[in-house]
Amino acid sequence: MERKRLQKSSEGRPTLEDVAAAAEVSTATVSRCLSHPEKVRPALRSKVEAVIARLGYTPHGAARALASSRTNTIGAVIPTLSNAIFAAVIQTLQEALAAEGRTLLLAASDYDRKREAQQIGNLVVRGIDGLMLTGEEREPGVYDLLQRRSIRKVCTYVHHPASPHSTIGFDNAAAMVRLVAFLHDLGHRRMAMIAGLSQDNDRATERIEGVRRALAARDLAALAILERRYSVNEGRQALRTLMERAERPTAVLCGNDVLALGVLLEAQHLGIRVPEQLSITGFDDLWLAREIMPGLTTIHAPLRDMGRLAADYLMAPSTPDEAPLHRELPAELVVRGSTGPAP
Amino acid sequence: MERKRLQKSSEGRPTLEDVAAAAEVSTATVSRCLSHPEKVRPALRSKVEAVIARLGYTPHGAARALASSRTNTIGAVIPTLSNAIFAAVIQTLQEALAAEGRTLLLAASDYDRKREAQQIGNLVVRGIDGLMLTGEEREPGVYDLLQRRSIRKVCTYVHHPASPHSTIGFDNAAAMVRLVAFLHDLGHRRMAMIAGLSQDNDRATERIEGVRRALAARDLAALAILERRYSVNEGRQALRTLMERAERPTAVLCGNDVLALGVLLEAQHLGIRVPEQLSITGFDDLWLAREIMPGLTTIHAPLRDMGRLAADYLMAPSTPDEAPLHRELPAELVVRGSTGPAP
DNA sequence: GCGCTTTTTGCAAGCGCTTACATTTTGGGA
DNA sequence: TCCCAAAATGTAAGCGCTTGCAAAAAGCGC
Predict the structure, then answer these.
(1) What is the pLDDT along chain B (343 residues), one digit of tens a residue?
(2) Is residue A88 a contact partner of residue B81, using CB atoms and an 8 Å limit?
(3) Best residue of B11, B82, B126 to probe chain A, by most A CBs closer than 10 Å
(4) Which amino acid residue lies closest to nucleotide D12, measuring CA to C1'?
(5) How far apart are CA A47 and CA A63, in angstroms?
(6) Which residues of chain B lie closer than 8 angstroms to A271, CB-CB?
(7) Is there contact between B27 and strand D, defined as CB under 7 Å from any strand atom?
(8) Going along B197-249, which residue ranges are E strands?
(9) Which residue, of A59, A193, B170, B203, is most buried by count of CB atoms within 10 Å of its CB?
């Protein structure tokens, strides 16, 4: 025992107790200096702070978390960082959290629901105060778990005003409806869609649904709705597939900008003039949508706002039984050179 | 007291103690079932596991970390997720960590050294077993802190075999030397560089140094070395600046692919034929380097290997006083259409 | 079966911090 | 100067888990 104490004070990092001893106050006072400075008289406080600085003391996060049952950590699960739209939101989220002294635990699901559930489980065990999720649809039991642990959560990239879970995002279906309307007004009647894989991805599903609905409302139907992984190459292949059909589309709606870029590049490769012979639309408004020639007509996803608002929501003090938050962000149509009147 | 116990077992999450009671064993045994299953007789173990499942028990990360002084958490600090090369490494890192039951704490420094030091401090307080860093140069005191806390660390994107800190990456300078040699062999003599900002960025600095050295070795000097933020637009502007000079370069070496893309687009905009009139090189080999027309000659950064190896290193059990690891990854020259013989 | 070694289990002391609650100090009136 | 409410500080009981050590059980050779 005696030896242990000695060891402790000589080697290793200093503890609250060491600080308390050196400053000749109780551990409670030191703790308060750190967590509720206003509850300590200024004179004493500065004395303690001096000792803290001298000893190079830093609190022990785990001990703190255990005693206070708050971790100051927020989790986030996204499909993948390889897609710039998720990277952008995480970037903003992290900035906003860091500004308030929170840290970010990150996990990726690779668009796999089971894997997502597992990753969420990991984060929960590790201890988080809040969790940012992508989309709303998930493995059964996940929301229960979060509820039981009273972990705040928010689904991003979607806006589901009637859902029991908070959502911060935009209306994916409505955005596609706008795109279809825009193309229809340009005279397009033969449209096809190259969507993302709808499996385990409610955003992709909603985008498809939006196109279906919008076309149906105009007594039309899609020439084809192809589902592809989000990659340039898949976009290229998909366009070839479409162009081999007897009835060729005059406009192709893509599930995101990456697919659209593939389509655009392949069209140029095939000698199809864009937009004279073929109109192309994307989704997300990545920076290359603006840089490419011709520029890509697309939907601007409000990524930074989403990250910022999610951070604010997850850091806000939570009251029991509060109503879910539903925040709709504008997802605006950005018209560029890849679309034009139907041939 | 009595009341507390009652409350505890009725509401809230079950604890190790609850499991122990229900399984009629000691808490030590339950703990062992979780952390060292091989030390428990199979019969007993399955009994305990059944109870764990029935009660829906999950361990409490903070308590575990406090008692064992291991967090199973690895930290990473990168400049920004907005650059795909960092996103890619983080993606791989996260995958590899998750596969071994570790979680990732992420922070971004925005290419600011002070901010980086602060973020590292946050992660350390929060508790991490290891830390992935970008580059080697940092605020004084940072490495001391990590040392005192005996947190394993590794610097990525660089290879400094003589450094006391582990590095996993490639030789930035050597890569540029290769690029210059390649251009020189093509007959280029008037070369300019559009580099990233070298402030607080040793990778950018080394790339510049590599170009300087390689040119000097050939009795040449750069027509200009411009430092710009990594963005398409900055690349465009920089090319204009270069082309306004009396002596125009026949080749432009860019600090990364994003700048190079800007240069390429601006060249097309200005009616400068690439590569007939101007050769352009990038760095990183982002996917668009391959997709763009003409393809970008660049250096392939081994991002996935770096992430994978960093994960392995950070998860490996550390022995005191071990020598730093230095792992050099190949950064190969990828020749595409943006370079050609000097005009 | 017996005595011994080798496993398995249980005991209980922390890990470093927070926070009710008790105690002391302070600061004003009167 | 004295008294009392209000403010500041101290006391100490945990938070939930791990782990060294002791005790008990299980094997094993004869």
Answers:
(1) 233 333 344 457 899 999 999 999 999 999 999 999 988 899 899 999 999 999 999 999 999 999 999 999 999 999 999 999 999 999 999 999 999 999 999 999 999 999 999 999 999 999 999 999 999 999 999 999 998 888 999 999 999 999 999 999 999 999 999 999 999 999 999 999 999 999 999 999 999 999 999 999 999 999 999 999 999 999 999 999 999 999 999 999 999 999 999 999 999 999 999 999 999 999 999 999 999 999 999 999 999 999 999 999 999 987 767 899 999 999 999 999 999 999 9
(2) yes
(3) B126
(4) A28
(5) 24
(6) none
(7) yes
(8) 224-228
(9) A193
Q: How far apart are CA B145 and CA B90, in angstroms?
A: 23
DSSP assignment of A157-175, as one string? S---TT-SS-EEE--HHHH
Question: pTM of the predicted model, to two decimals?
Answer: 0.92
- Strand C closer than 7 A to residue A66 Cβ: yes
**Beta-strand pair A103-108/B103-108:** antiparallel
Angle between helices A232-243 and A257-270 (to 10 degrees): 50
Using CB atoms, pick whichever of B61, B91, B148 lies closest to residue A108: B91
| Cα-based distances in Å from A268 to A229, A285, A342, B23, B332 | 21, 20, 18, 68, 29
Tell me whether residues A291 and B232 touch, CB distance under 8 A.
yes
> Contacts of residue B84 in chain A, CB cutoff 8 Å?
84, 87
Q: Token match 């560089």: residue?
A: B193
B/e letters for B7-30, b = 16+ CB within 10 Å, e = fewer, are eeeeeeebbbebbbbbbebeeebb
